[in-house]
Amino acid sequence: MPGVEIELEDVSKSFGATAALAPITRRLRAGQTTALVGPSGCGKSTLLRMIAGLEHPDSGIIKLGSEKPSTMASRGALAMAFQDPSLLPWRTVRANITLGAELAGTVDPQVDALIDLVGLTGFGLHRPAELSGGMRQRAAIARALVSEPEVLLLDEPFGAVDAITRSRLGKELPPIWRGRGTTAVLVTHSVDEAVQLADRILVLTPRPGRVVADIDVDLPEGGDGRDVRERVFRDLAGQVLDALEKAA
Ligand code: ADP
Ligand code: MG
Question: For ligand 1, is residue 40 a contact (CB within 6 Å)?
Answer without folding.
Answer: yes
